[in-house]
Write a structure and sequence with these properties.
Bound molecules: copper (II) ion
Shape: globular
Number of domains: 1
Order of helices and strands: HEEEEEEHEEHEEEE
Radius of gyration: 16 Å
Strand content: 25-35%
Strand order of the largest sheet: 1-10-5-2-3
């Protein structure tokens, strides 16, 4: 029951997004960020001050927000406890927005299926377009039941949020604020 409701929410949102973003997907090719120092940088595992466990559900996170110290290096252990593929991505709201058409394109090419990552389709997309799956240091994309890690050093000042840019998920509430403090 819940699942079919979620499916229609996800695909309903995908359809409207596809209409809006058609033709703009290629122009948005910022590779989802991750090289932009204003969001922080990949952290040195030796400098980690603590580990924060993140659990991803359909379509929300636990915890719902993050309290981080300026300049802190944190290890995130991320687990997907949902039935769909989810992403944990640390960036600005604008970067997340730019990343969503790319995720939509991955879905259109069959790389991103609702509940799995199709690595064969990813290879085909890479071969035909020179653009497929790529790992960014500020994000982790996980199939149901899978876990991953990010070690991230936060900047002193930034307007950051963590979010899932799988089509439809951000829109249904899959994002939360990163509060930076002294
Ligand atoms: Cu998601």
């Amino acid at each position: 029951m819940l699942r079919s409701k979620l499916l229609s929410a996800v695909f309903g949102a995908s359809l409207s997004l596809a209409l809006i973003s058609s033709g703009t997907a290629f122009a948005a090719g910022s590779h989802g960020g991750g090289h932009d120092m204003k969001i922080g940088k990949p952290g040195d595992p030796a400098k980690v001050s603590r580990t924060i466990e993140i659990t991803m559900y359909d379509n929300y996170y636990e915890p719902e927000s993050l309290d981080i110290k300026e300049g802190e290096t944190v290890r995130f252990v991320v687990r997907n406890a949902g039935e769909f593929v989810h992403e944990f991505n640390i960036a600005t709201a604008a970067m997340h927005e730019a990343h969503r058409p790319e995720m939509m394109m991955m879905m259109e090419h069959g790389v991103l299926e609702p509940d799995r990552i199709n690595h064969k389709a990813a290879k085909a997309m890479q071969a035909s377009m020179g653009h497929g799956m790529h790992k960014e240091a500020n994000s982790v994309l996980l199939e149901p039941g899978k876990s991953g890690e990010i070690v991230w050093t936060f900047p002193k000042h930034a307007d950051l949020e963590f979010a899932c840019n799988v089509p439809g998920h951000y829109e249904t509430g899959m994002h939360g604020p990163v509060k930076l403090s002294h």
